[in-house]
């Protein structure tokens, strides 16, 4: 578990990220992201238009069926949100699942 | 309309609604559990999840070692789903709150994800990825259900079964009134599934390759088991054409049944003994209905499958007596001892560790000789049955003389036991051996001195001679009864048998294919054992044949260098001998 800087209040932090993986947010990428998200205490939510899912669940992320260039809204709320947001938005935008794996290590 | 090609394994044409087995997964009934059993069910669920996760991790390691991390990591994602928070929460709710059984909960949770995914991914290249989720579902269900898969029970209307693969036992329980035909992505020409389909006279095409994603249950499909074609969503004109062909085929088989009482004798007056191959006692009826001279191969594996305990001696005996009664006085019944093997059903008696090379491992008589109580029980029943008819006993998969001698020794011991117990049996019961391992074919002269008859099992003989896995569609082209090496082995075995006055027949698929009838007669065979539904067609060829002509055909075929040359040559000869069959056929 990483200890990010605690944010002063628990209002969610947001970022909009474009999927740049040419295969979209496919199964492996989704699970890799979820694994990373699970390292933070904050709740992580990913939204595609009006569909909102738990960012710590690979299978739920998969159901977004996010093809390349889809815009996703990332929402992080909790004590380590400030630390989590840049890492997670970078991960979500990673061009390959392998790149994402490296990011996790 | 999509036309797909596969391997034709059982002739006939069927048209009807599809029942897709694997894309829809196993059918899981919506079952609830009583409140006091919920914790139990949760425990069962988690045990299955843990087992499935372990398996996925193992797959990941295997694939990583074999192909590299890039491929292995695909299965890493599979393993991660077993700890996915949303998936686990859904399962928990379904079992705890809704009190669904674990199987249904898994199936339902996965399907919800798939539904969401497919709705969202509609029209994108991602859509087909839901296959991964189904794979995961099957993995878990496998652990929950054990070996139980009962998708084919309770069919309401007749269907054509489409599946990735069917096991022989799944095929065997198909209800002919409810299933018109089947087609599978996997499987080969002489898998036991194919043999059973043929025995059941169920049109079937196997080894088609991927197609289940292109078809949904309820779609009209056509299975052409003659040509090996599966047609999805047929055009009306094509469908009409197939309906005509189907009806013509039905009336033609009626014509053959009319011919059943004509003798199987060549034009120049040589008698051929045509026997039937059967799996189940009920099939004896199919033999008598087509004028079979007896049962040349009664496979007894089906006494053993689909059950948790071994059949008792009494169960064996009752099954054998049913066949003997149906065949009636004077018709031989050759009972082959247990031939459980790698590609069949390895239950409690199988090897403890999975074998690296099951088709070269402990199967068939090798298994029996290691488990003599099991073997003796069957031998006792066969001997007791011999008091009631012309029963003959046959040992499968014999590779060496010492093996054969061990079997005969055991048989004699069992005779002694029966004598002491005052049971009736035929003390001179004819003993035969299958010739299906090349070593036995090569040693045929020596074997011929020790048995009353040979039965050449071409299916295995071809597989072991050409070293081609008979269920692997990628090497199916190597596997051919027409291969010159196979023909020479058959000739050597027949010659050895004749020298020693030992009986000999062919009981593989080859003997049921009328294309090979002239060749087999020409090689000197006077007895063939075949699937009962092939009897009329083979008899029709026999009745149009001169033995001298057949011998010339065999001699010519033996000079050819490849299976293809042999087949082409036989096709030409068939046109000459039996233009009707050639015209009615499609080659």
Characterize the structure shown.
The complex is a heterodimer of chains A (105) and B (587). Chain A is α+β, with helices and mostly antiparallel strands. Chain A has one domain (13-96): HPr-like (Histidine-containing Protein, Chain: A, 2-Layer Sandwich). Helix content of chain A is 34%, strand content 22%. Chain A has helices spanning 27-37, 58-62, 81-92, 97-104; strands spanning 13-18, 43-48, 51-54, 71-77. In chain A, strands 1-4-2-3 form a 4-stranded antiparallel sheet. In chain A, strand 2 (43-48) and strand 3 (51-54) form a beta hairpin. Chain A starts with 12 loop residues before the first strand and ends with a helix. Residues 1-7 of chain A have low confidence and may be disordered. Chain B has 587 residues and is of the alpha/beta class. In chain B, the strands form 2 sheets. Chain B has an 8-stranded mixed sheet. Chain B has an 8-stranded parallel sheet with strand order 15-14-13-12-11-10-9-16. In chain B, helix 9 (284-289) links the parallel strand 9 and strand 10. The longest helix of chain B has 30 residues, at 38-67. Chain B is globular, with a radius of gyration of 26 Å. The two termini of chain B are 24 Å apart. In chain B, 47% of the residues are buried. At the A-B interface, helix 1, strand 3, helix 2 and helix 4 of A face helix 2, helix 3 and helix 4 of B.
């Amino acid at each position: 578990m990483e200890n990010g800087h605690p944010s002063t209040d628990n209002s969610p932090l947001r970022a909009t990220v474009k999927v740049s993986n040419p295969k979209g947010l496919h199964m492996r990428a989704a699970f890799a992201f979820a694994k990373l998200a699970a390292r933070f205490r904050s709740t992580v939510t990913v939204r595609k238009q009006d569909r909102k899912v738990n960012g710590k669940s690979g299978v739920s992320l998969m159901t977004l069926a996010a093809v390349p260039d889809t815009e996703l809204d990332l929402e992080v709320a909790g004590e380590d949100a400030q630390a989590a947001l840049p890492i997670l938005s970078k991960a979500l935008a990673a061009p390959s699942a392998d790149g994402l794996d490296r990011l996790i290590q | 309309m999509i036309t797909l090609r596969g391997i034709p394994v059982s002739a006939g044409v069927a048209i009807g609604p599809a029942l897709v087995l694997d894309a829809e997964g196993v059918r899981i009934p919506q079952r609830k559990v009583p409140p006091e059993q919920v914790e139990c069910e949760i425990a069962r669920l988690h045990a299955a999840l843990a087992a499935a996760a372990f398996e996925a991790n193992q797959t990941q390691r295997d694939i990583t070692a074999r192909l590299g991390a890039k491929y292995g990591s695909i299965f890493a994602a599979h393993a991660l789903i077993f700890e996915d928070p949303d998936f686990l929460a859904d399962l928990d709710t379904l079992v705890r709150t809704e009190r669904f059984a674990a199987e249904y909960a898994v199936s339902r949770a996965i399907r919800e994800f798939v539904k969401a995914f497919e709705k969202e991914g509609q029209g994108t290249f991602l859509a087909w990825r839901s296959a991964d989720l189904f794979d995961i579902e099957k993995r878990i269900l496998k652990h929950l259900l054990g070996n139980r898969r009962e998708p084919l029970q309770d069919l309401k209307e007749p269907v054509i079964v489409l599946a990735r693969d069917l096991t022989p036992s799944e095929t065997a329980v198909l209800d002919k009134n409810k299933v018109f035909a089947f087609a599978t992505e996997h499987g080969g020409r002489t898998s036991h599934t194919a043999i059973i389909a043929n025995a059941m006279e169920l049109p079937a095409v196997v080894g088609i390759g991927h197609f289940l994603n292109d078809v949904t249950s309820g779609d009209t499909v056509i299975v052409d088991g003659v040509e090996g074609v599966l047609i999805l969503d047929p055009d009306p004109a094509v469908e009409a054409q197939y309906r005509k062909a189907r009806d013509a085929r039905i009336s033609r088989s009626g014509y053959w049944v009319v011919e059943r009482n004509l003798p199987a004798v060549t034009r120049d007056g040589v008698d051929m003994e045509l026997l039937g191959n059967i799996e189940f006692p009920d099939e004896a009826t199919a033999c008598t209905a087509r004028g079979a001279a007896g049962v040349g191969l009664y496979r007894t594996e089906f006494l053993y499958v689909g059950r948790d305990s071994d059949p008792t001696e009494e169960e064996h005996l009752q099954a054998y007596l049913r066949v003997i009664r149906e065949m009636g006085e004077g018709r031989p019944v050759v009972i082959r001892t247990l031939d459980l093997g790698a590609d069949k059903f390895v239950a409690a008696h199988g090897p403890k560790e999975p074998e690296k090379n099951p088709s070269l491992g402990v199967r068939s008589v090798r298994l029996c000789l290691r488990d003599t109580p099991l073997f003796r029980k069957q031998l006792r029943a066969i001997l007791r049955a011999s008091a009631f008819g012309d029963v003959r006993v046959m040992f499968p998969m014999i590779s060496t003389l010492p093996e054969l001698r061990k079997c005969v020794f055991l048989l004699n011991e069992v005779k002694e036991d029966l004598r002491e117990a005052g049971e009736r049996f035929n003390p001179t019961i004819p003993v035969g051996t299958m010739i299906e391992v090349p070593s036995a074919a090569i040693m045929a002269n020596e074997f011929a001195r020790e048995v009353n008859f040979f039965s050449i099992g071409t299916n295995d003989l071809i597989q072991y001679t050409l070293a081609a896995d008979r269920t692997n569609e990628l090497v199916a082209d190597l596997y051919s009864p027409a291969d010159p090496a196979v023909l020479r082995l058959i000739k050597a075995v027949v010659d050895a048998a004749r020298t020693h006055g030992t009986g000999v027949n062919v009981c593989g698929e080859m003997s049921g294919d009328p294309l090979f009838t002239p060749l087999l007669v020409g090689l000197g065979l006077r007895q063939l054992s075949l699937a009962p539904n092939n009897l009329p067609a083979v008899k029709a060829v026999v009745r149009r044949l001169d033995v001298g002509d057949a011998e010339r055909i065999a001699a010519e075929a033996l000079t050819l260098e490849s299976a293809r040359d042999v087949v082409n040559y036989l096709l030409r000869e068939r046109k000459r001998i039996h233009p009707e069959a050639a015209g009615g056929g499609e080659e």
